[in-house]
Amino acid sequence: MATLKEKLYEKIEGWRPRTTRLLKEYGDVKVGDVTIKQVIGGMRGVKCLTTDISYLDPYEGIRFRGYTIPEVLEKLPKVPGAEMPYVEGFLYLLLTGDIPTEEDALMVAEEFKKRREVPSYVFDVLKAMPKDSHPMAMFATAIVAMQKESVFAQKYNEGISKMDYWEPMLEDALNLWSRIPEIAAFIYRWKYRDGDIIAPDPDLDMGGNFAHMMGIDKPYDDVARLYFILHSDHESGNVSAHTGHLVASALSDLYYSISAMLDGLAGPLHGLANQEVLRWIQGVMEKMGGKLPSEEEMKKFVWDTLNSGQVIPGFGHAVLRKTDPRYQAQREFCLKHLPDDEIFKYVDMLYKVVPPILQEHGKAKNPWPNVDAQSGVIQWYYGIKEYDFYTVLFGIGRSLGVATNIVWDRALGYPIERPKSITTDMMEEIAGIK
Ligand code: HAX
Q1: What is the pLDDT of residues 313-324, one digit of tens each?
Q2: Structural domains of the chain, ranges and CATH numbers in brackets
Q3: Cβ contacts of residue 427 below 8 Å, gap of 6+?
């Protein structure tokens, strides 16, 4: 059986001529125009990035390598005795574009096993940070602390050819993916469980091992698998993916790139929204003295938030124009495993109440819930009540897609990113008002 690297080599060799041809023969063909609204408005809708790892349709939602979320969950080999697929198999799909066999998934798991040891200084760095540091700051610090391990940086210094950049990038990605769950679990147990650290179990798959290190029983292993898969990638323009790609485009190595990616994810308009949802619900619960509000009462809480100039976390999206299928997948999990949970009932009531209010409010282009509206409730149910940790879980997942993209960025030789800015004077001239 071909190794992961051999398989990827074959895929890359097949892909390179397509990119080269587009660039050489069709480089001047227009993809679209850019308006002043897009220049000022965060480049919304400007088609100026490329990736084949995932594609986000505004109405259908995400496809990973052409497969919808239900297809991914159905087609990928499952961990024995579990409902959810191997994260390792999902990574095989992201990297190669092919649905893995169980053997392929186990080959990736084997790669991880060989690389799992986290350098001890990473834990020293984390222990030296103030305990009340945000877990995302700890996570990003731990990742960048490992920069000296970068095989890419070492090979670059030795003068490796540009055509071969992807190979040490893949080495860095495999090393990072195999270590990242232990670092995240360490942050959790160090910060919130009196430093009572649980050693990894090398015989478990990525999701199973993470649940084990978190100290949470089944089916939390499936929660971890589902969570990492759902959060892995959302094409290239979102803040975390774009940041990772941008930093890597300067040939900064994977540790710098993924650490920066995490910094972008830590914003409340992006990945931090999952903690904000729980914080918002907790606020309502406190005001309600623990009882479930009526729909009318809930509507008032939503309007109060909007009228005080804040956003409703977990709703809206820059690209999606319907309920996020990542939300749906988690909702189905909740309906199966925690239908009577109090917070799930809150979340479900918000699903009913918020969209019509956002429509009436008239600002948000997408009134429907996104991935973050539903994810905290599952974590809370399985005992992770420290909601500022939720974005770390998102970060583990997002590292899968972003690092895969970076490996392919290097394989296809994408250049340093450098869009052009213009001044307000220039825009006024273009608009004909100056
Ligand atoms: N509540 C209140 N107002 C909202 C809103 C919400 N949930 N969503 C959008 N709006 C407002 C925007 O703030 C904006 O107001 P201004 O004109 O005053 O600036 C207006 O509606 C138009 O925004 P938009 O074009 O619909 O949305 P954007 O592309 O600018 O922003 C966001 C997309 C996701 C940032 C936005 O919907 C939002 O802030 N949502 C709440 C936070 C959240 O859930 N973020 C997570 C998104 C998913 C994700 O990336 N996860 O990681």
Answers
A1: 999 999 999 999
A2: 273-381 (1.10.230.10)
A3: 36, 39, 40
